[in-house]
């Protein structure tokens, strides 16, 4: 049976993955190196390293293919910054929404608990008053005893 992880785990992992989605992994050539490779500006030894890496790395192979299809490669750094900024805005918006939802859940729970305490207190006081020996109402003097009515016989 598969164990389910809490939702917070998934959102934290997703947040970290989204923040790092545009960063270069260890061992992979940088975006600039791939652009220089496409434009033929790399020295032969680095060009060979990139070719070997791209042959083994599906992600870099796809990236190189995508870069080769781009018409305006010089705009790529600006596009990457723009995408990264958009991801940051979306993540912040999502985080604010989650915080707001958590706040309302906690507020609802606190209000519910307070209402429950008030209802229990009301019934406890009501029960205590109803079942007291004197059965006096609030505001009545509990020490006063009523004398029996005398029945004058004439």
UniProtKB/TrEMBL annotation:
The chain crosses the membrane at residues 103-129. This is Putative zinc-finger domain-containing protein. InterPro entries: Anti_sigma_zinc_sf, Znf_put. Residues 31-60 form the Putative zinc-finger domain. Keywords: Membrane, Transmembrane, Transmembrane helix. The keyword Transmembrane helix applies. It comes from Compostibacter hankyongensis. It comes from the Bacteria. Residues 134-154 are annotated as: Disordered.
């Amino acid at each position: 049976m598969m164990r389910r992880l809490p939702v917070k785990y998934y959102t934290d992992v997703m947040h970290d993955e989204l923040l790092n989605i545009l960063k270069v992994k260890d061992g992979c050539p940088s975006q600039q190196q791939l652009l220089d490779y496409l434009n033929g500006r790399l020295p032969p030894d680095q060009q060979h390293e990139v070719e070997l890496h791209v042959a083994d790395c599906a992600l870099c192979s796809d990236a190189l293919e995508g870069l080769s299809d781009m018409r305006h490669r010089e705009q790529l750094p600006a596009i990457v910054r723009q995408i990264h900024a958009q991801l940051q805005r979306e993540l912040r918006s999502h985080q604010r929404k989650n915080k707001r939802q958590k706040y309302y859940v906690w507020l609802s729970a606190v209000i519910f608990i307070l209402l429950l305490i008030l209802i229990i207190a009301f019934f406890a006081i009501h029960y205590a008053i109803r079942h007291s020996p004197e059965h006096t109402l609030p505001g009545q003097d509990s020490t006063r005893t009523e004398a029996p009515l005398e029945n004058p016989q004439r």
